[in-house]
Amino acid sequence: MPLRNRRAAALPAKLSRSWLLVNAAKPEDFAPGLASEADSVLFDMEAAVPADQKDAARANVVEALNGGMSAWVRINGIDTDDWQQDLEALSGADGLRGVMLALAEEPEQVTLTAMRLRAGTPVIALIETAVGLDNATAVAKAPGTFRLAFGTNDFRKDTGISDDPMAMAYARSRLVIASRVGKLPGAIDGPPGAADNNATVVESSRTTQSMGMTGRLCLNREQVESINLALSPSEDEVSWAVDMLQAHQAGASVGDGSYLPRLARAQKIADLADSYGLWNA
Asked: Which residues are in coiled coils (predicted)?
């Protein structure tokens, strides 16, 4: 049976920081992807796969998921001929953890997708257009929606917006706020450039974190550890949280109105450090 990274396998998907996309037309990359430090792995049957290879890619994914592998799958948009075929193929797949719906624009698209899969299968809505962004709150509230993700490259093509962080700030903020209103885990940002070095990945992922997003897509498994690092509590944050919690347990006085919010933040940081295995990192 293929080896899944044990730490990542035990991590709830609502906390996943790095979401590694693996080309479904290249099944030889499935096992290395699953063994990597990626918190979640997506077999990609959409953008990475040419039209004449869709059937073969779909067969690769089904064979892998019924052969002991466990992964998420990015499926084609609901307005494509491949959407129905993707769902028919995946509806009985043993190792399917959930799907990412490409080009999500309407809440009904997410709900219809979820209804065609095994009951309870989570759907990540990938927002890639101006229409999708405008409807982000409704999509976040739709039955079946698990998280929102940002398809930055296609969004920029659709809108003409540059990749400058300031230019993209409004869109990222909309997804963060929509996720909060929809009571979802944090939004997932688009990927760094596939050829970006580790320092560049960390720097751009800090922007992701500063916008309030808690996950990031990834096209290169060599980048996942940099994404995990940037989207985890820092050593200083963990140290502050430990000091705060220890002081509280020792009977520290409330002091002022900021005390309880700071205490809640300290507990959240400590919980994340525990989930991500940072205590012994």
From this structure: none
- Residue 127's CB: how many other CB atoms inside 10 A? 31
Euclidean distance between CA atoms 127 and 121, whole angstroms: 19
The tens-digit pLDDT sequence of the chain (281 residues) is 446 888 898 999 999 999 999 999 999 999 999 999 999 999 999 999 999 999 999 999 999 999 999 999 999 999 999 999 999 999 999 999 999 999 999 999 999 999 999 999 999 999 999 999 999 999 999 999 999 999 999 999 999 999 999 999 999 999 999 999 999 999 999 999 999 999 999 999 999 999 999 999 999 999 999 999 999 998 898 999 999 999 888 888 777 888 889 999 999 999 998 888 886 54
10 Å Cβ neighbour count for 264? 10
Chain centre to alpha carbon of residue 150: 9
pTM comes to 0.93
Q: What are the backbone dihedrals phi and psi of residue 45, each rounded to the nearest 5 degrees, phi first? A: -100, 5
DSSP assignment letter at 134: H
The residues with which 127 forms a beta bridge, in sequence order, are 150
